[in-house]
Amino acid sequence: MDEKRGTAQDISVTLEHVGDNPVLNLALGLLINEYNLLGEIATQILELMPDPSRWRLNLSGDLSATVNALDYRPLQSGYKTTRGSGYVGGVTFPQEDGTFLFVLDANNLAFPPVDSDSLEEVVAHALATARHLGRHEAGHALLMTRGENAEMYRDLADLDPSAAAWSHIVARDIDDFRIERHVRQNLLSPYSHVEGLPGALDHLSTALAAASRNWQRDIAKYAEASDHAVSAFLRVVAYLSAEVGLDEAAVPLVPRPVPVKWDRYLADHWARWSAAFHRLSPADEPMTLDQLASTTGELCEIAVEWMSAIGYRRGVADSGELYAYWTADSY
Asked: What is the model's pLDDT at position 76?
């Protein structure tokens, strides 16, 4: 069967929560009409999903509201776009008919985080962001199409309960690492997780310090807060591994400059973490579920060892109950 190859002109696009924000409406309109924003996004999606009838694009001025509506989420448990010190720029929704809906944050495109008075520089950053987000979300669709997404392998690793408790988080990060590794092999990315690492370390240490001081007031609350901080930081490790990469001898490189809290939180585990991630192929190269499950298990075990080393013991007792201890003198 011949592969259907689409063009940027074939794509289906919806703008949502844009018209009620005059500044966003103006900025997004300028990017679309004068700088081919939609074409830049579509071109990257088409590289991995070349049949435009299999996907649609939504640019939302309120990503949380759009996701809540699509997922039928109540307001009290609504979707949040923050991930520790980072944020979400897009979400991929598989549809019942086998197609995909890519929802991108229009604010992230129209107001890129670049400090410049030059329109050309701001537009260049916006278009680079658009290309990155388009290729990244297409990567999720590609993994789902091949049956290699996290939901297919996250429960396959043979792990003890304490490590298995992190398999859903780690599998999600495996998908993102594979996609980011592919994206960075093909595009110049405007995102730098090296630059964001000091903030990510501060977010982690602040959350653990607060829990260590206050857990006796409500241990479940502070264990959940610590879990969220750890989960957000594991995501940073995945993205950081893809960005920093390996040297010519396949040895994990260290982010430069080294942040102040590097030795306290990452130095002893970074090489193992990055090496394990780099046993994964980029998203455009297929892997077996056994291979993905094996790396999931390895990364879960590293994560549990790392948490204990930094002073957060989180696990499952023989009785099946969750436990949490904050064991460091300071964070």
From this structure: 55
